[in-house]
Amino acid sequence: xxEAWKEEQLLWLARLHEVRRRExxxxxxxxxxxxxxxxxxxxxxxxxxxxDEKITPVTAAKQIFDWVLSVPDIDxxxxxxxxxxxxxxxxxxxxxxxxxxxxxxILADLTVGLANLPDAYNEGDKPIDFEGGFIVVQxxxxxxxxxxxxxxxxxxxxxxxxxxxxxxxxxxxxxxxxVEPGRDDQQQMYRRAEDMYTNxxxxxxxxxxxxxxxxxxLCICLHSAxxxxxxxxxGPDTARGRFAHLVVRAAATWxxxxxxxxxxxxxxxxxxxxxxxxxxxAEGGTxxxxxxxxxxxxxxxxxxxxxxxxxxxxxVDATNSAAAALDxxxxxxx
Length: 334
Fold this sequence. Notes:
Layout: H1 2-24, H2 38-51, H3 57-74, H4 80-97, H5 101-115, E1 128-130, E2 135-137, H6 160-170, H7 186-208, H8 220-233, H9 248-265, H10 278-282, H11 291-307, H12 313-333
Antiparallel strand pairs: 1-2
């Protein structure tokens, strides 16, 4: 799987590089099938070496630091912003597409390593400008990128929180392909979306498991976990509830990998809009994670297991592992 993923990422990076090359000089011949260059291969090699356990995630994070800051000096099609954007794109492609827990743990550890890197500064004698001067970093200043969420390299890990929050909150529909309802391949689309949603949640839970400090961009992982359980708390006649069967594995992963962290959080973060689901609200439930809510979640896993909506053995097994994890958490909470 990693080889197929690597080839797909190299192709994606090569196409992005070709677009930038054309933007800089429209007179150059357009290559419909561009080959990856030295810069793209170097970035992918860092990820590959980490996933193959040839280097540690911390070492990979340091190598990525060097790549992002140095690649503009050897490739005129890059600046620090585009280099960082390429890196974060590869990282999330892995977090969504790789299903092996060992690989997802490596990517989670690598991400923690990135967030722990020292901030980068403009050590040159000239200002660095991004997006035509939208952001200008003067000599000696910390490098801030013009990402959608802004942020400094590396302590604020620009756009990380936005991407994780969107993936977990939108849920499986975020990974649907353009398939018309009723088509034979709709079930295949659902299964792929279920797999990708499970993968990104496993990645996020393995980060939350490491207790990032308050104020870290990595805290979004635990904050957004409650969006996963919102799918379970809504009825089948709601936009979220209709896809509850596709989030069973993802929710179970949170309970088995970071259930204690969920319990200690007490309630969803006030920084994020969160409304208890219709089914939970009908039970008189509050926004607190207490024993009553844990028992409600356990009952929802049972209902989904018995509903016949689960399409895979993995999903059925997940309901059992979730129930066992919830029993442990209920005992601890009592």
